[in-house]
Amino acid sequence: MCNEYLVKINEIKYGLCLKCRLSFSADKGNKCNLCGKPLVSEVDLCLACRTGNAQALDRLWVIFPYTGKYRRLLTEYKFSKKIALANFFTDRILDLLTSEPLLKDAVIVPVPPRPGKIKKTGWDQIEFLVKNTGKLKKIKINRCLKRRKSQVQKRLSRNQRMDNLQGRIYTYKNVPKTALIIDDVITTGSTLNVCASALKENGAEKVYGLCLFYD
Predict the structure, then answer these.
(1) How far from chain centre, in Å, is Cα 22?
(2) Helix (H, G, I), strand (E, B) or coil at 6
(3) How far is 36 from 61, CA to CA, in rounded Å?
(4) Phi, psi torsion values for 5, nearest 5 degrees
(5) Per-residue confidence in pLDDT tens, the chain, 215 aa
(6) Is the pTM of this model over 0.85?
(7) Can you list the domains of the chain with their CATH numbers?
(8) Other CB atoms within 10 A of residue 144 CB
(9) Which one of 27, 34, 57, 116 is at 20 to 30 Å from 187 when CA atoms are compared?
Protein backbone atom coordinates (compact mmCIF):
# COMPACT_ATOMS: atom_id res chain seq x y z
CA MET A 1 0.00 0.00 0.00
CA CYS A 2 2.96 2.32 0.61
CA ASN A 3 4.67 1.05 -2.56
CA GLU A 4 7.75 -0.10 -0.66
CA TYR A 5 9.32 -3.42 -1.68
CA LEU A 6 8.24 -6.39 0.42
CA VAL A 7 11.30 -8.40 1.44
CA LYS A 8 10.63 -9.96 4.85
CA ILE A 9 8.76 -13.26 5.16
CA ASN A 10 5.76 -11.76 6.95
CA GLU A 11 5.61 -8.87 4.48
CA ILE A 12 5.32 -11.32 1.61
CA LYS A 13 2.88 -13.49 3.55
CA TYR A 14 0.45 -10.61 4.18
CA GLY A 15 1.14 -8.52 1.09
CA LEU A 16 1.78 -5.57 3.42
CA CYS A 17 4.79 -4.19 5.25
CA LEU A 18 4.60 -4.06 9.05
CA LYS A 19 3.98 -0.31 9.06
CA CYS A 20 0.99 -0.68 6.76
CA ARG A 21 -0.38 -3.65 8.70
CA LEU A 22 -0.30 -1.65 11.90
CA SER A 23 -1.95 1.33 10.21
CA PHE A 24 -5.01 -0.76 9.34
CA SER A 25 -6.41 -0.96 12.84
CA ALA A 26 -9.79 -2.53 13.42
CA ASP A 27 -12.53 -0.08 14.36
CA LYS A 28 -12.92 -0.61 18.12
CA GLY A 29 -15.77 1.84 18.66
CA ASN A 30 -19.29 0.74 19.59
CA LYS A 31 -21.19 -0.44 16.56
CA CYS A 32 -24.77 -1.46 15.87
CA ASN A 33 -25.32 -5.19 16.39
CA LEU A 34 -27.38 -5.47 13.20
CA CYS A 35 -25.90 -3.12 10.61
CA GLY A 36 -22.36 -2.75 11.96
CA LYS A 37 -22.29 1.02 11.66
CA PRO A 38 -20.83 3.19 14.47
CA LEU A 39 -23.12 4.16 17.35
CA VAL A 40 -23.12 7.74 18.59
CA SER A 41 -25.28 7.64 21.71
CA GLU A 42 -27.35 4.49 21.23
CA VAL A 43 -26.70 1.15 22.89
CA ASP A 44 -26.56 -2.13 20.89
CA LEU A 45 -28.81 -0.95 18.03
CA CYS A 46 -28.85 2.22 15.96
CA LEU A 47 -32.10 4.13 15.46
CA ALA A 48 -32.55 2.81 11.91
CA CYS A 49 -32.33 -0.82 13.06
CA ARG A 50 -34.57 -0.24 16.10
CA THR A 51 -37.34 1.29 14.01
CA GLY A 52 -36.87 -0.69 10.80
CA ASN A 53 -38.21 -4.04 9.69
CA ALA A 54 -37.40 -7.16 11.67
CA GLN A 55 -34.18 -8.79 10.54
CA ALA A 56 -33.31 -12.47 10.32
CA LEU A 57 -29.69 -11.87 11.29
CA ASP A 58 -29.11 -12.27 15.03
CA ARG A 59 -25.97 -10.18 15.16
CA LEU A 60 -23.36 -8.69 12.86
CA TRP A 61 -19.69 -7.89 13.35
CA VAL A 62 -17.72 -5.59 11.05
CA ILE A 63 -14.02 -4.80 11.17
CA PHE A 64 -13.08 -1.80 9.02
CA PRO A 65 -14.83 1.26 7.56
CA TYR A 66 -15.09 1.23 3.77
CA THR A 67 -13.37 4.56 3.26
CA GLY A 68 -10.04 5.98 2.11
CA LYS A 69 -7.12 3.59 2.49
CA TYR A 70 -9.46 0.85 3.72
CA ARG A 71 -11.42 0.97 0.48
CA ARG A 72 -8.14 0.72 -1.41
CA LEU A 73 -7.19 -2.32 0.68
CA LEU A 74 -10.27 -4.22 -0.48
CA THR A 75 -9.84 -3.00 -4.06
CA GLU A 76 -6.30 -4.39 -4.14
CA TYR A 77 -7.56 -7.76 -2.88
CA LYS A 78 -10.85 -8.05 -4.74
CA PHE A 79 -10.10 -6.51 -8.12
CA SER A 80 -6.30 -6.62 -8.40
CA LYS A 81 -6.30 -10.15 -6.95
CA LYS A 82 -3.48 -9.55 -4.49
CA ILE A 83 -4.31 -12.80 -2.75
CA ALA A 84 -1.65 -12.45 -0.05
CA LEU A 85 -4.01 -9.91 1.55
CA ALA A 86 -6.33 -12.83 2.32
CA ASN A 87 -3.90 -13.76 5.10
CA PHE A 88 -4.29 -10.30 6.60
CA PHE A 89 -8.09 -10.57 6.52
CA THR A 90 -8.01 -14.15 7.78
CA ASP A 91 -6.14 -13.10 10.91
CA ARG A 92 -8.91 -10.62 11.69
CA ILE A 93 -11.57 -13.31 11.19
CA LEU A 94 -9.73 -15.74 13.44
CA ASP A 95 -9.38 -13.05 16.12
CA LEU A 96 -13.17 -12.76 16.23
CA LEU A 97 -13.83 -16.49 16.12
CA THR A 98 -11.52 -17.16 19.04
CA SER A 99 -12.66 -14.22 21.19
CA GLU A 100 -16.45 -14.22 20.74
CA PRO A 101 -18.30 -16.86 22.86
CA LEU A 102 -21.39 -16.66 20.63
CA LEU A 103 -19.33 -18.09 17.76
CA LYS A 104 -17.92 -21.04 19.67
CA ASP A 105 -19.92 -23.60 17.65
CA ALA A 106 -20.53 -21.50 14.54
CA VAL A 107 -20.06 -22.96 11.09
CA ILE A 108 -18.88 -20.57 8.39
CA VAL A 109 -21.31 -20.09 5.50
CA PRO A 110 -19.93 -17.95 2.65
CA VAL A 111 -22.27 -15.60 0.80
CA PRO A 112 -22.81 -17.30 -2.58
CA PRO A 113 -21.50 -15.55 -5.71
CA ARG A 114 -23.76 -14.32 -8.48
CA PRO A 115 -24.19 -16.83 -11.33
CA GLY A 116 -21.48 -16.24 -13.91
CA LYS A 117 -19.29 -14.18 -11.59
CA ILE A 118 -16.44 -16.70 -11.41
CA LYS A 119 -16.49 -17.15 -15.18
CA LYS A 120 -16.35 -13.38 -15.65
CA THR A 121 -13.76 -12.45 -12.99
CA GLY A 122 -11.86 -15.71 -12.63
CA TRP A 123 -12.49 -16.10 -8.92
CA ASP A 124 -14.73 -15.46 -5.94
CA GLN A 125 -12.98 -13.38 -3.27
CA ILE A 126 -15.26 -14.62 -0.48
CA GLU A 127 -14.73 -18.30 -1.29
CA PHE A 128 -10.97 -17.78 -1.42
CA LEU A 129 -11.03 -16.03 1.96
CA VAL A 130 -13.19 -18.71 3.57
CA LYS A 131 -11.05 -21.50 2.18
CA ASN A 132 -7.94 -19.73 3.44
CA THR A 133 -9.48 -19.38 6.91
CA GLY A 134 -10.31 -23.08 7.03
CA LYS A 135 -6.82 -23.96 5.89
CA LEU A 136 -5.07 -21.98 8.62
CA LYS A 137 -7.33 -23.28 11.36
CA LYS A 138 -9.67 -26.24 11.22
CA ILE A 139 -13.01 -24.48 11.15
CA LYS A 140 -16.17 -26.04 9.76
CA ILE A 141 -17.38 -24.57 6.49
CA ASN A 142 -20.77 -25.28 4.95
CA ARG A 143 -21.38 -24.03 1.41
CA CYS A 144 -25.11 -24.60 1.68
CA LEU A 145 -26.33 -21.46 -0.10
CA LYS A 146 -26.75 -20.87 -3.80
CA ARG A 147 -27.87 -17.84 -5.74
CA ARG A 148 -30.08 -17.45 -8.77
CA LYS A 149 -29.50 -14.73 -11.35
CA SER A 150 -30.52 -11.22 -10.25
CA GLN A 151 -29.62 -7.59 -10.89
CA VAL A 152 -26.34 -6.21 -9.56
CA GLN A 153 -27.07 -4.98 -6.02
CA LYS A 154 -24.93 -1.82 -6.03
CA ARG A 155 -27.19 -0.17 -8.60
CA LEU A 156 -30.30 -0.50 -6.41
CA SER A 157 -31.86 1.27 -3.42
CA ARG A 158 -32.31 -0.45 -0.04
CA ASN A 159 -35.88 -1.62 -0.76
CA GLN A 160 -34.99 -2.61 -4.31
CA ARG A 161 -32.10 -4.72 -3.02
CA MET A 162 -34.39 -6.72 -0.76
CA ASP A 163 -36.93 -7.25 -3.55
CA ASN A 164 -34.15 -8.13 -5.99
CA LEU A 165 -32.89 -10.99 -3.80
CA GLN A 166 -36.15 -12.42 -2.48
CA GLY A 167 -36.31 -16.09 -3.47
CA ARG A 168 -32.99 -15.87 -5.31
CA ILE A 169 -30.77 -17.09 -2.49
CA TYR A 170 -31.67 -20.58 -1.33
CA THR A 171 -30.31 -23.61 0.52
CA TYR A 172 -29.60 -26.81 -1.37
CA LYS A 173 -28.36 -29.07 1.46
CA ASN A 174 -28.49 -29.33 5.24
CA VAL A 175 -27.74 -26.12 7.11
CA PRO A 176 -25.83 -25.73 10.39
CA LYS A 177 -27.65 -24.98 13.65
CA THR A 178 -25.37 -21.99 14.25
CA ALA A 179 -24.10 -20.20 11.16
CA LEU A 180 -21.69 -17.35 10.57
CA ILE A 181 -22.26 -15.76 7.16
CA ILE A 182 -19.16 -14.08 5.75
CA ASP A 183 -19.15 -11.26 3.18
CA ASP A 184 -16.74 -8.47 2.28
CA VAL A 185 -18.84 -5.27 2.43
CA ILE A 186 -22.17 -4.43 4.02
CA THR A 187 -24.12 -1.49 2.62
CA THR A 188 -27.80 -2.00 3.44
CA GLY A 189 -27.59 -5.52 4.88
CA SER A 190 -30.03 -6.91 2.32
CA THR A 191 -27.80 -9.74 1.13
CA LEU A 192 -26.95 -10.93 4.64
CA ASN A 193 -30.56 -10.84 5.77
CA VAL A 194 -31.84 -12.78 2.77
CA CYS A 195 -29.11 -15.36 3.40
CA ALA A 196 -30.06 -15.50 7.08
CA SER A 197 -33.75 -15.94 6.23
CA ALA A 198 -32.98 -18.83 3.88
CA LEU A 199 -30.89 -20.53 6.58
CA LYS A 200 -33.49 -20.08 9.33
CA GLU A 201 -36.32 -21.25 7.11
CA ASN A 202 -34.42 -24.48 6.69
CA GLY A 203 -33.41 -25.25 10.26
CA ALA A 204 -30.73 -22.82 11.44
CA GLU A 205 -31.35 -21.62 15.01
CA LYS A 206 -28.84 -18.78 15.19
CA VAL A 207 -27.41 -16.89 12.24
CA TYR A 208 -24.65 -14.33 12.66
CA GLY A 209 -22.82 -12.23 10.12
CA LEU A 210 -19.27 -11.00 9.66
CA CYS A 211 -18.25 -8.37 7.11
CA LEU A 212 -14.78 -7.03 6.58
CA PHE A 213 -16.05 -3.50 5.81
CA TYR A 214 -19.11 -1.35 6.46
CA ASP A 215 -20.15 1.27 3.92
Answers:
(1) 21
(2) coil
(3) 6
(4) -70, 140
(5) 788 889 899 999 999 999 999 999 887 788 888 888 888 877 889 888 888 777 899 999 999 999 999 999 999 999 999 999 999 999 999 999 999 999 999 999 999 998 888 889 999 999 999 999 988 778 899 999 999 876 565 665 555 555 556 668 999 999 999 999 999 999 888 899 999 999 999 999 999 999 999 98
(6) yes
(7) 28-214 (3.40.50)
(8) 21
(9) 116
DSSP 3-state helix, strand, coil percentages of the chain (rounded to 5)? 40, 20, 40
Query: CB count, 10 Å around CB of 166?
Result: 12
In single-letter form, the type of residue at position 80 comes to S
b/e sequence 65-75, b meaning 16+ C-beta within 10 Å:
bbeeebeebbe
- Rounded distance between C-alpha atoms, residue 35 and residue 31, angstroms: 8
